[in-house]
Design brief:
Oligomer: single chain
Order of helices and strands: EEEEHEEHEHHHEHEHEEHH
Helix content: 25-40%
Strand content: 15-25%
Strand order of the largest sheet: 1-11-10-4-9-8-7
Radius of gyration: 18 Å
Number of strands: 11
């Protein structure tokens, strides 16, 4: 499969970069010799059919999965080849998960504060400082949840509201690298677009590197500066979102068209 790539996609140094990176899992190559760089202040959407390697890519970028071959490096800390380097990189990285990964018996506020758990001792019994609580309330407000609901138990929220709480938990870290694995899957179209626009503003105003897996191709086109297409663990498209036309989409998804048509109409 020939890769379509725009030669001018990376005019600036990459905040985080993969070089000839491969990942093998269960005897299967989930990523196959992928080289990518992600800029500060830009939004990259990762698309592709089921099993393409999209989630594996996110797990590589946040250090949950190590490469079988190849290298990963960050602009801030250089080669991410040691536990110490990854610990520093994780301090400036936040991830939004599709399944929320929230604790239902805790309040929305406490779940958002868990995004700051690595900033203090895990054995601390002291209450969170007022400054941290203010940051958490502001993060909830940023995703459309009013302060009046901050103390409500998470298991009282709808699925879409839980997803917003998960996004707020990532935003409260004020990350330099923000990753998302289908972060808008539980949201209706207009809300997903609004929160996507918020992430885009975050990237533009604060210089955050945003990399998100999306199944909604239309949202990827409208939200992202750049689209990366994966199929079978290989990089098959890398270019500006405006160049991800019907031909490029067909090249990424191949014969997997029926589900894409359904997703595009939802």
């Amino acid at each position: 499969m020939n890769m379509r790539v725009d030669p001018g996609i990376m005019p600036r140094p990459s905040a985080i970069a993969l070089t000839d990176l491969s990942v093998e899992r269960g005897g299967r190559r989930a990523l196959d010799t992928v080289s990518l760089g992600f800029e500060r202040g830009a939004v990259t959407a990762v698309v592709g059919p089921s099993g393409a390697g999209k989630t594996t890519l996110i797990h590589v970028l946040n250090g949950l999965i190590g490469p079988t071959r190849g290298a990963i490096a960050s602009e801030a800390f250089g080669a991410l080849a040691s536990r110490q380097a990854w610990a520093r990189q994780r301090e400036r990285t936040a991830t939004i998960y599709q399944d929320h990964a929230l604790i239902g018996r805790l309040s929305a506020l406490d779940n958002v504060l868990l995004g700051l758990a690595d900033t203090r001792s895990p054995f601390s019994l002291a209450p969170w400082p007022r400054s941290a609580r203010r940051r958490a309330v502001r993060a909830l407000s940023d995703v459309g949840l009013p302060p009046a609901r901050a103390l409500d138990r998470v298991d009282c929220f709808s699925g879409g509201e839980k997803q917003r709480i998960g996004i707020a938990r990532a935003l409260v870290r004020q990350p330099g690298v923000l990753l998302g694995d289908e972060p808008f899957a539980s949201l209706d179209g207009p809300l997903g677009q609004r929160l996507g626009d918020d992430l885009r503003r975050l990237a533009t105003s604060d210089g955050v590197t945003v990399v998100i897996v999306l199944h909604q191709v239309a949202l990827a086109r409208s939200l992202a500066d750049r689209i990366v297409g994966l199929n079978g663990g290989s990089l098959v498209f890398d270019g500006p979102a405006c160049l991800f036309d019907a031909e490029a989409e067909s090249g990424v998804f191949g014969s997997d068209r029926s589900s894409q048509a359904k997703e595009g109409s939802s």
